[in-house]
Structures are given as C-alpha cells and as structure tokens.
Amino acid sequence: MYFNMVSAAVGRMSRSEPDETEDTVQEVFIHLFKALKHYDSARSLEAYILEIARRVRISRYRYGSAAKRGGDNPHPRKVNAHDSADGEQYVSIRSSNPNQEMEMIQAEETRLLRKALGIISEGCRELLRLRYDQGLSYKEVGEILNEKEGSLRVRVQRCLTALGRSYSQLSSGEVSIKW
Fold it and tell me: What span, in angstroms and rounded, lies between the C-alpha atoms of 125 and 28?
C-alpha cells in the first residue's frame, strides 16, 4: 500500500541507480517495522513513513560520502545531545568505533537546528510544530488557529525560510537576528 509512496519519495530524494533506490526502499521498510512501536496515532501515518524515508536517505548519503573520504562506519551508534548547566549543549556518543564523523555531523546539525528554532518567532515555532512535529494537515492547523488554508501555506513557507536563514547564519558563524 505504501510501497509506491516510499519509492517515489526515495526516487525524488536521490538521483541514484535503480538498485540503490530499491535498497533504500527496503531499508526504509526495515526501519519502519522497527519504529512502528513508537508511532503516535495522533500523527499522520504517511508523514511518519515519509520522515523515516527522509532520514534513511540522509543516512545512506552520509554513509556514502564518508566512505568516499575513506571513512567507514558499519555500526552507527546513537548520538545524545544534552544541555549543560550553563545552557550550552554537549554531545555524548556511545561507540567503540574510532570513526564517529557521521555521528558528530548529525549531532552538530541537531544542535544548530535547535538553536535556529530558538531564534525564529514563537508563532513560527508553534506553526512548524503543529505542521511537522504533530504531522497535522494544513486544514487541521487552520481549524486550530482559525485561519484559512492558503494563508497558512504562505506562513509556513515564510517560517521555513526564516528557519533556513537562521540555520545558515548559525552554521556559517554569522550573528543571527530574531524574525
């Protein structure tokens, strides 16, 4: 039922060989099978599946990039980001593998995204939380916020643009402002 949706999503995310796409689709369903116990039925199942597909594709891309640079990480470990007492975040990585580059990249991107979310307005954070974290449709978000679907689409796009700008500024080391 969801095979065509996942295949199309993986195909759009990568311009790779058909065998690579097929392997990625299989990996998505393996991860989905493992992750279903954490599925919140209040969210859209399609959004949940597509998020897993996106994460698997990113993981495969990073693994391939690391392999091209001579890195190898056949057993990726979990990365935990923590807040310290002074408000800064630090990362703890449990791994016996000496090459932890991919885990560090993911942890840094997560840290920057959290900081970028703190920079954008509260209204944008709430809108993005409803739309993407809770997986609500534009219609459902419109009912909650009492707004038209079309204007919500524009607001979400503007919030994503603001989030992208703040993320880019943080990743390049520039001083960021509140939108």
Answer: 28
Please list the rounded mean pLDDT of every run of 10 residues in the chain (179 residues).
78 69 83 81 83 84 70 49 53 55 77 89 91 88 91 92 88 56
CA separation (Å) from 115 to 34, 86, 102, 133, 147? 30, 15, 20, 17, 28
Write out 50-79 in H/E/C secondary structure: HHHHHHHHHHHHHHHHHHHCCCCCCCCCCE
| All domains in the chain, ordered by first residue | 1-72 (1.10.1740), 100-179 (1.10.10.10)
Q: In terms of Cα–Cα distance, which of 96, 16, 95, 93 is closest to 56?
A: 16
Residue 70 CB contacts under 8 Å (≥ 6 apart), including other chains: none
Question: In terms of pTM, does the model score above 0.70?
Answer: no
Residue 93 burial by Cβ neighbours in a 10 Å radius (0-12, 13-18, 19+): middle
Of 155, 43, 174, the C-alpha closest to 115 is 174
